[in-house]
């Protein structure tokens, strides 16, 4: 792979095949084949992503699976510019959202500390902040989970979030964060060449 983007593989605990699949060869994908994506594949991706850490094990990410047909027709108009065509061409699109009512699950998810659900119930603003931060982190885990399941993903935030929330989440109160197109990449999956990345030395301050 592109040596300039990476540190030596000898520093890794996984093989080059895994490093390539999850990171080095994986592209943000907008060009998909017609091969369908099954619910089982999406569930397999989730079954990895769910182990990623979240604050107090809150797991506030929620996933709306939007398949071609009536559901996709409801989503496309709320995407911005060229993202409309990207959703319209994807085998499946996921609306990733944060659930501010995540505290309802805390007795189950965080039994080590009883009473979290009751403490958070009146703190709506705090819950919304917490949900957003951990759900965004989970979105990253989920993209990697999709790659581990052999799928290609194209995350996008060019969309009208309020309109998507009104369209799909009026009952649940979920807050949309990102739409991720999912499928099998056609070729490299992108019309653009891979962009350069910042090196560790450029981003890290070591004290
Ligand atoms: C939070 C986020 C928002 C993005 N929004 C859009 C978008 O609205 N439309 C789009 O075409 N790509 C979008 N992208 C894709 C990025 O441009 C792409 O991931 C980045 O350029 C790296 O591309 P690569 O993975 O092919 O190297 C988004 C990616 C992320 C993570």
Report on the architecture of this protein:
It is a single chain. This protein is of the alpha+beta class and 207 residues long. It has a domain at 49-182: NADH Oxidase (3-Layer(aba) Sandwich), CATH 3.40.109.10. It is 38% helix and 13% strand. It contains nine helices and four strands; from the N terminus they run H-H-E-H-H-E-H-H-H-E-H-E-H. The two termini are 31 Å apart. The structure holds flavin mononucleotide (FMN).
Shape: globular
CATH topology of the domain at 49-182: NADH Oxidase
The largest sheet is: 4 strands, antiparallel
Radius of gyration: 18 Å
Number of separate strands: 4
Total DSSP helices:
9
Order of helices and strands: HHEHHEHHHEHEH
User: How much β-strand is present in the residues?
Assistant: 5-15%
CATH class of the domain at 49-182: Alpha Beta
Distance between the termini: 31 Å
Please name the CATH architecture of the domain at 49-182. Answer: 3-Layer(aba) Sandwich
CATH superfamily of the domain at 49-182: NADH Oxidase
* Helix/strand/pairing category: alpha+beta
The ligands found in this model are: flavin mononucleotide
Uncertain runs: none
Assembly type of the chains comes to single chain
Q: In order across it, which strands form the biggest sheet?
A: 1-2-4-3
């Amino acid at each position: 792979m592109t040596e300039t983007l990476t540190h030596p593989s000898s520093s890794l605990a996984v093989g080059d095949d895994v490093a390539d699949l999850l990171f080095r060869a994986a592209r943000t994908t907008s060009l998909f084949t017609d091969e369908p994506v099954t619910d089982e594949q999406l569930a397999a991706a989730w079954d990895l992503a769910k182990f990623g850490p979240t604050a107090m094990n809150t797991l506030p990410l929620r996933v709306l699976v939007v398949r071609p047909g009536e559901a996709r027709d409801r989503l496309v108009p709320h995407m911005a510019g060229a993202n409309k065509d990207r959703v319209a061409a994807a085998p499946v699109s996921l609306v990733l959202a944060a659930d501010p009512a995540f505290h309802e699950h805390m007795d189950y998810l965080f039994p080590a500390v009883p009473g979290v659900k009751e403490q958070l119930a009146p703190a709506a603003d705090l819950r919304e902040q917490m949900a957003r931060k951990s759900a965004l982190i989970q979105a990253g885990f989920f993209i990697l989970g999709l790659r581990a399941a052999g799928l290609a993903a194209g995350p996008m935030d060019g969309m009208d979030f309020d309109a998507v929330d009104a369209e799909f989440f009026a009952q649940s109160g979920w807050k949309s964060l990102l739409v991720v197109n999912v499928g099998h990449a056609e070729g490299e999956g992108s019309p653009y060449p891979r962009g350069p990345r910042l090196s560790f030395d450029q981003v890290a301050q070591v004290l």
